Amino acid sequence: MAYDKYKNQLFNQYPAIVDLAEKAKKRVPKVSWEYLESGTGNESLTKRNLEAFEKIVFTPRFCKGVLKPVISTSILGKTYNAPFGIAPIGLTGLIWPRTEAYLAATARHYHIPYTLSTVATETPEAIGPVAGEMAWFQLYPPREMELCKDLLNRAKTAGFHTLLITADVPMAGRRERTKRAGLQMPPKITPELIWQGMTHPAWTVATLQRGLPRLRTIAAYTDYKDMKFVSGYVGNRLGGTLDWDYCKAIKDIWQGPVVLKGILHPADAEKAVEIGLDGILVSNHGGRQFDGAIAAIDALPAIAKTINGRAAILFDSGVRNGLDIMRALSLGADFVLLGRSFIYGVAALGQHGGHHVTEILMDDLKNNMVQLGIEQLKDL
Q1: Among 213, 228, 286, 302, who pairs with 93 as Cys (CB 3.0-4.6 Å)?
Q2: Any idea which residues carry the catalytic annotation?
Q3: 147 CB contacts (<8 Å, ≥6 apart)?
Q4: Which domains are assigned to the chain?
């Protein structure tokens, strides 16, 4: 274990820290990762998302000779090499430093979209050039329109093409497992946290090199760079006031493809089309907002029937592999976003993780298409 190997050396330089780590070592260590990936409430919805996917099955057809699956897809004015992309995830720097840059580079390399969150730990100015034409931006709508306009202008200037407006966070969700773990921003220095850092030296070194994770996009609007102050600013200034007039105003400002994220009801999908939005994203926020919601994949067919080709239908929540992507496409989605899968990859393999996950997903999707007996996604 790295900690035991270097304990004596550490003690000579940082005796107080080693003393705290020894105290933490006597307690049952908690894996911080488990708290970062948690759902909300009892986390029933995260399970329901997965279980709903498992119920979707196909009837294969055979004797079709050699099949060569084609998975390239056109949506929202661009063609991508696969029918999936990288979903927006906030505070990814807590999981692994520079995650946004690594995944943006993956997106550009494989020609799939990467979506940067408003509450990411890197800025649009830093990530836009890395992602290039694959850059999408996810907006947590500010309560003041002037702040909204400035955020949108920054994203547009940095090269972001498609905008996702997040509708499914009317207020912060209660992530009980995260609360029980004592996770907060900024991270509180405790014996457990020190123990985690010392027993995961690669993460600790990378974090120290990059600096503690912070909301760099939002920090530009505050007079103080303290993480606690910036986090409070986010809570007070972002979200909670979104309505249809606001959505329409954003569409007029952006001057590009706009997708409303977090739709589960057909009537909301219909309204989004009526006000001129280019697409809707069927999602329950990966089970991280309202534990009593319907599984997103169960909501998809009715919404697809309502939209009936008048706007793009994107999907996320519960997607873990190529077969899940195929399932969502078969029920009416035009495109799929994944979050956890890509974060797992980066957590395991650092800058190589996004590439590895993309290769797995592409291969798995093609393999399942052949198993089913199709070459074209439209044949689903």
Answers
A1: 213
A2: 285
A3: 221, 237
A4: 44-175+232-379 (3.20.20.70)
